[in-house]
Design brief:
- With 109 residues, this protein is of the alpha/beta class.
- It contains 3 helices and 4 strands, in the order αββαβαβ.
- Helices cover 26% and strands 21% of the residues.
- It is globular.
- The relative contact order is 0.16.
Length: 109
């Protein structure tokens, strides 16, 4: 995508920190400029390092201790097994409050 959902969240909740994640490091994100509470991370969410990377972006030290933040995961157009990986991240993250998924296609399982 283009990160418009992340931009909308950062505008709607200016006291929150929004981290947009995509595997494409070359996304055109000039519309993110000027949003102090919005950042982009090029990240493979299927990797074991995905959750520690996300938590580090939030300033959290560990995946095992409860965070002082409420975490909400939003997945838009997650193809194939990416929805399962978003669910895994949600389950493994401390203080997860919600998971919102809008998959575009699922594998045949």
């Amino acid at each position: 995508g283009k990160g418009f959902s992340s931009l909308l969240l950062s505008l709607t909740f200016p006291k929150s920190k929004v981290i947009a994640v995509d595997s494409n490091p070359d996304m055109e994100l000039s519309h993110f400029r000027g949003r102090d509470n919005l950042e982009f991370r090029s990240l493979d969410v299927t990797s074991k390092s995905a959750l520690p990377t996300i938590l580090a972006s939030l300033g959290e030290a560990s995946t095992h201790t409860a965070t002082n933040r409420t975490l909400i995961f939003l997945g838009i157009h997650l193809c194939g097994s990416l929805s399962r990986h978003a669910l895994r991240l949600y389950r493994e993250a401390p203080s997860s409050a919600a998971l919102v998924l809008a998959p575009c296609c699922l594998d045949s399982r």
